[in-house]
Amino acid sequence: QVHPVESGGGLVPPGGSLRLSCVDSERTSSDYAVGWFRQAPGKERELVAAFDWISGVTHYGDSVKGRFTLSRDNAKNTAYLQMDSLKPEDTAVYSCVTGENILSLDNWGQGTQVTVSS
Questions:
Q1: How does strand 112-116 pair with strand 105-108?
Q2: Strands 10-12 and 68-73: what pairing?
């Protein structure tokens, strides 16, 4: 199985922006769900955003609503996570996951580190 590959993480000051990318080269159509999760040290993994291709709805975690945006470029099999107004508490490893639908997200990428610090 080919796993999604994330990129775009790094160090950014509070209030800054980053855009993460997730490429799932195994997909041959746009009919799949994609999500972003994050996990900070000592904390449980939490949902950041997830796109349900069946309903066309994107779900966001409460802590990122209004600041983060999930988008897709279906021609490139790529999903993006635009992160604005970043806060130190956004520091975490961000992982992309894909699946046949939003209830079966099961193909995980390796993750990319995002650090928000001055």
A1: unpaired
A2: unpaired
Query: Quick one: pLDDT band at residue 9, thresholds 50, 70, 90?
Result: very high
Kindly state the percentage of the chain with pLDDT values over 70.
100
> What is the full DSSP assignment across 48-114?
EEEEETTTTEEEE-TTTTTTEEEEEEGGGTEEEEEE-S--GGG-EEEEEEEESSTT-EEEE---EEE
Q: Map residue 44 onto helix, strand or coil.
A: coil
Is the pLDDT confidence value at 7 over 90?
yes
- Give the distance, in angstroms, between the CA of residue 30 and the centroid of all CA atoms in the same chain: 17
Is the distance from CB of 98 to CB of 5 less than 8 angstroms? no
Angle made by CA atoms 117, 38, 22, in degrees to the nearest 5: 100
Q: What is the mean pLDDT of the chain?
A: 95
User: Quick one: which of 63, 69, 103 has its CA closest to 83?
Assistant: 69
Q: How far is CA 61 from CA 48, 65, 92, in A?
A: 5, 6, 14
